[in-house]
Amino acid sequence: MPVIAPNHIARLSAGEIQSQLARCPSLPSLGSINKALQGLLLTEQRYTAQIAEIIRRDPSLTSRLLRLVNSVYFGLNTPVNSIEEAVFYLGVRQIRQLAMVTPVIEDFQRLTKQCNFPWREFWQHCIGTAIMTREVTANVPGPTEDSDYVAGLVHDVGKIVMAWTFPDHFSEIHRRAQAGTTPVSELEEEILGVNHSELGALYLERHRLPELMIYSARYHHYPEKAPQHRHVIAAVQVADLLLRSEGIGISGDYTPVTREQCFCAPVWNLLLGGVPETEQPLTKAAISRTLEQIPVMLEGMV
Prior knowledge:
Elements (H helix, E strand, L loop, with lengths): L3 E2 L3 E2 L3 H8 L6 H4 L3 H7 L6 H9 L2 H11 L13 H29 L7 H21 L6 H8 L3 H9 L1 H11 L6 H8 L4 H11 L4 H9 L10 H17 L12 H5 L4 H4 L8 H22 L1
Antiparallel strand pairs: 1-2
């Protein structure tokens, strides 16, 4: 006999979950994240005029670009109205991040219209996690590349897939999660039969996305269990926890987390294993400074 969740929503079997998951549409942006712009930005000669021309083809990206550069974060006295000026102020790194975010978020939004949920704040959580993942990897030993940003961006894709594929279950999970007494993954297992981490990984596997994205979705709560990419996935977990501790955006998990708990989490052993203990407070202080800037950055991006 299946376990019956509140409001007579039946907990589903693994087979039923897989069958319904097959109906969830693919997200084209995840497979090709604005390749034309990325290719240009990676060349040795980065001409502002050429970058601006590509940005003009995407009204949504243009809007985000101008909002971000005119946000409190940059503190400019005169508003920036031209794309060329915005490119100059933002720099290649932030342009590339915006180029990744814009198509992904637009695709995500198409999947979430049928569920009542604070989606804008959820996008802020996803983008903030991406930014902080990059910040963490930049401040600890190990490689830094664009893939860490994408890993942070898609870590909670399972919640989006759940909202589209199982809207009644998702709504009941969100209703109960708001009490803040039970981790959302436990509620998902109880009410639906699978948590968002596994559901996101199954979805990304089905659409043959890169291994790092799959592992980031599946293991971001337990990076030590990941077969590969533990360094980046550990950074995703730290970023996720830090945003929750500061109340930046909404992840859907309302159980309380403090900044002290974030900086004392065991996952730091994966990230700071090669850093002398005397230097570790400096690393964490640098990460904290960026964390404090995240809210105004997000206002310009979402």
